[in-house]
Protein: CocE/NonD family hydrolase
Organism: Polyangium sorediatum
Amino acid sequence: MNDLKTLPSHLLEWLLDLPPAETRDIVVERDLRVPMPDGTVLLADRHAPRDDKKRPLILVRSPYGRTGPLGVMLGRPFAERGFSVLVQSCRGTFGSGGVLDPFRTEKDDGLATLAWLKEQPWFSGEIATFGPSYLGFVQWAIARDAGSMLKAMSPQITLSNFRDFKYPGETFSLDAMLRWTHLVHIQEKPLHEHLLARFAARRSFKRAFAHLPLADADRVVLGHRVGFFQDWLEHNAPGDPWWTPANHSAAVAEVTAPALFIGGFYDVFLPWQLRDYAALVAAGQTPYLTIGPWSHTSRPLFKESIRESLAWFRAHMLGDRSRLREAPVRIYVMGADEWREYPSWPPPGVRTERYHLQPNRGLAPNPPAVSSPDHYRYDPADPTPSVGGALLNEESGPQDNRALEARRDVLTYTTPPLDRHIEVIGPVSAELFVQSSLAHTDFFVRLCDVDPSGRSVNLCDGILRLIPGRPAPRPDGTLAITVELWPTAHRFRRGHRIRLQVSSGAHPRFARNPGSDEPLATATQLVPADQTVHHDPARPSAIVLSVLG
């Protein structure tokens, strides 16, 4: 075949470090029409070798398009190595009919697509599902009901229940959801208009994040209301049945297809992805899990996902286990800067250790002595900003937190320099005894590594929104709260220090708590909160770490 025509194939193989292609002669059938029960037609492209063989099919359902570089990267690597690939545009995107109603129609549309596949003369009867983020969620939407035709799945940086991510700790993921709303509304514009819209959004996002009520945020960024963004603001109450079509978590334990999970320690979905992993393990399955030092948009993550998914699909659909690792769990230990393989997550040998908040902003394993509590004021008119962490923009990941920690609305508790390495691998939580002048308030907790120069780098964090009765006050009037942080894998090196931050927000990553008990969508009144954190023998606040060794 002409070398010029196959140059993209060779380049992709080199960039992704893939095994040699079995063929470079790939045919792409464009705009296949897939009918839905309501009469809507979704469009799909099929990538396959130029022969008449019925090959196992990899199904990719995406709201982000089927052509261009994305289509090539989703289709060609697999088609060149033993599979056919169907890349379908979700409802209301890139030529598919209907209106995009994110997350809520994917089960019905996905199952209708499986029914259509069974009627195609080129279909072998076996499928795998592949893709990150939204492309992973749609896999969970059909995984249980796909039956025996589903032979393997690779859900990456994703989760089975999008409601959980939208309201972490019952706050609202403002930055991520507004940016995603903007993305899907400009992604089909011509290139020059798309680039202009992205450039203009830099200023409009700042205005939107500073603006109240939140119901205006989509209009500030896009110039008009967006129905599904308004729905997310309106349907924020726990247990709202509106979210039922977007929640497939109850079905995870019934999925029998081998599953490969790929995630990142700074990914927005990691805690809930690990819940899905744990559900399969508890059901007696042996899913594989890879977690790297990545955020949601890290380029190395995509490379790893293609390589590992190819090995996974070849092992479970073609009987070729030559590139499949033996250990089910592979994680990157930050601080030690090395990949490790384990039989399970968390690794064997992990034990729980509490580091207690101490007087004079100390942090230590021993319980605190009698001491006075610490105080700060949270002003939602000047909300504590988000710095790094699990974000959907270029500011995600590990960042220097010193400027944040210098704010008067952030408390820090720090160990002395460590006399040995300490490896924290697994779940992290904070058990705090707090008080607030307001019944409606938030508490945000972050774990950091402080190096000998004083640079404080964030590892993981979490947030919790309090309302009257959640939790119930103790007899002394304090509230005993547990904040679940993102899991992590990190070595605190000898000479470094472990630091805990306590504050009441990370804006605009999470919508600020106005303190006024107004609805999420329409709140405009901002009430400062006077916060208290206790650390004494009767109220031993602590960070709870999973320590290995």
About this structure: Residues 127 and 150 are 5 Å apart (CA to CA). The chain has twelve helices and 21 strands. The mean pLDDT is 96.
